[in-house]
Design a protein that fits this description.
By secondary structure, the protein is an alpha/beta fold. It is 35% helix and 20% strand. The chain is built from 16 helices and 22 strands. Strands 1, 2, 3, 4, 5, 19, 20, 21 and 22 form a nine-stranded mixed β-sheet that branches. It has a six-stranded parallel β-sheet with strand order 9-10-11-12-13-17, sandwiched between helices. Strand 1 and strand 2 (42-49) form a beta hairpin. The radius of gyration is 25 Å and the shape is globular.
Length: 524
């Protein structure tokens, strides 16, 4: 009798099992999956539970709390931005302008500006509800400023030891590497030996070195050489960040810099690049001013320009930079992005300002106003001084990753570079679909698996069972950047869904209430 009841119970369980359906928190159906592993895409379902991808395959019979029909769309790993200025992340933790580009993870703290001490900063950041995942670099400029202010000299042994300890603290706290901004104060005052010494500390922890080169204009070749030497001597992987050739005299130089990268790699030096897909850069107005003139801060700069002979020298070097370097040989090249002391300049050019003053638009008059602007507190500017052919050539290199160099922005606030809204969709729409400069598969590799490999992320950058569910769904026929240099404040089109750690964060192109971003910490 007991055996009979047991057989009946077993039969019932078998019937129920055959008829049951797998259930997931989220299923993405019918999309063309570029998983970062297989060379060819495939149509498949993706089942997600919690923050992980748990099933890839036939999910026709499965059910879910929520489903996304991705028919006619690409399903990609979430984009990884290798150069993001999210210094305002505690003020704008949602990071909407990154999410709406399909970005799920950013590498922050570039150009020597990363936080220090790192541990305290990351501990604080973890208390915020973040829209995106953040990985961080310790900033050489930050570390140097904390120890030496803006002194234009070599560090003492004691000061160098203090900087090494600060870098070590950052790496122990989870930094992914170190960034330098050798064009900026105070990093510009460092020599090769100092940078190598700090990079050696990072190398011991398996970190990377990213560099805003000492020069990207007339000194570009020397700047690339210096980065390669740092990589060799410190035995550290390096990234030539936002790689470009600034100023008309240097247009075409990417042919030589890319050959240098290839030669270095052939010698065993691990060199890569990242790039934004625009013919304009964006940085401070101060980049037109010689760095020696800004040592000690704005008050010291004021004293120098009050001395007639020193001002004459500073003025001459600014004119040189306008004509041959970042200024692009035209006052219209310099476009104001954020001028707190004269907001009506936002979106206008240095030429506009000179004419407004009733002056001739000469380099000399432009240089006078650059000095005045810096004394007023400086400004953020867009510089239209990059050649399109260099942009395309760098983009075609297999080891050039996509990176925005964009900041956290709010619609209507200032006049930012459109890269803050449109970097990733611009690559996909303009350079892949319209210009056919690179293939879709190569573009996605530059946005996903290649950055993940560079950072050593073992659980992101691919669509694979067991990986974190960072996923971007976009329409390859309509994805497009909408912001322009004249009118930058527009979110892109053609990216209806973004999933961060299993949570649908962008749905039908609009932000949801989900905030699932994590602070990522590197472990050795």
């Amino acid at each position: 009798m007991r055996i009979k009841h047991y057989l009946i119970s077993a039969l019932i369980l078998t019937i129920l099992s055959c008829g049951s359906k797998d259930h997931y928190d989220l299923i993405i159906r019918n999309g063309l999956v570029y998983d970062g592993i297989n060379e060819e895409p495939y149509i498949s379902g993706i089942g997600i539970n919690g923050d992980k991808i748990v099933k890839i395959g036939n999910l026709i019979e499965a059910t879910a709390d929520r489903e996304i029909d991705a028919e006619g769309h690409i399903v990609s790993p979430g984009f990884i931005d290798m150069h993001a200025h999210i210094e305002r992340i505690m003020e704008l933790p949602t990071a909407e302008n990154f999410l709406k580009q399909g970005v799920t993870t950013v590498l922050a703290g570039p150009d020597g500006r990363g936080p220090s001490p790192m541990g305290k900063f990351l501990d604080s950041l973890e208390t915020f509800d973040l829209g995106i995942n953040t990985a961080w670099l310790v900033g050489h400029n930050t570390v140097r400023r904390n120890v030496m202010q803006t002194d234009n000299r070599k560090p003492t042994e004691e000061e160098l030891t203090s900087m090494k300890k600060a870098v070590e603290e950052a790496m122990l706290s989870g930094a992914y590497g170190i960034s330098t901004g050798l064009k900026y104060v105070p990093g510009a005052y460092s020599d090769l030996a100092e940078v190598i010494a700090l990079s050696e500390v990072v190398s011991e922890f398996g970190g990377i070195y990213t560099s805003h080169l000492r020069e990207e204009g007339l000194g570009l070749i020397e700047g690339v050489k210096e980065a390669i030497v740092i990589g060799r001597e410190a035995d550290i992987p390096i990234i030539l960040t936002h790689h470009k050739a600034i100023g008309k005299p240097m247009w075409g130089a990417s042919e030589k810099t890319l050959a240098m990268v290839d030669s270095a790699r052939a010698l065993g030096i691990d060199v890569m690049m990242d790039q934004y897909p625009y013919t304009a850069s964006a940085t401070s107005l101060a980049v037109l001013i010689p760095t020696w003139a800004r040592a000690g801060g704005n008050e010291e700069f004021r004293k120098r320009v009050e001395d007639p002979e020193t001002r004459k020298k500073i003025h001459a070097e600014i004119m040189y930079n306008i004509e041959y370097d970042r200024g692009g040989n035209d006052l219209e090249v310099v476009q104001f992005a954020n001028v707190s002391w004269k907001p009506d300049l936002n979106g206008r050019t240095l030429k506009d300002w000179v004419i407004e003053r009733g002056l001739e638009p000469t380099f000399a008059n432009g240089a006078d106003l650059v000095i005045e602007g810096q004394l007023n507190g400086g400004a953020s500017c867009v510089y239209h001084a990059i050649g399109e052919e260099d942009v395309k050539r760098i983009m075609q290199h297999p080891l050039a990753m996509v990176a925005s160099d964009g900041g956290l922005v709010v619609p209507g606030n200032g006049h930012p570079h459109p890269r803050s809204y449109g970097t990733f969709p611009r690559v996909l729409g303009h350079y892949v679909r319209e210009e056919k400069i690179i293939s879709l598969s190569l573009a996605l590799r530059k946005m996903t698996s290649l950055p993940a490999e560079r950072l050593g992320l073992s659980d992101r950058g691919f669509i694979q069972e067991g990986m974190k569910a960072d996923i971007t769904v976009f329409d390859p026929q309509t994805v497009k950047d909408m912001g322009t240099f004249e009118d930058p404040h527009h979110y892109p089109e053609g990216i209806p869904y973004v999933v961060v750690n299993g949570k649908v964060t962008v749905s039908e192109g609009e932000l949801t209430r989900n905030r699932a971003g994590k602070v990522l910490r590197k472990t050795k």
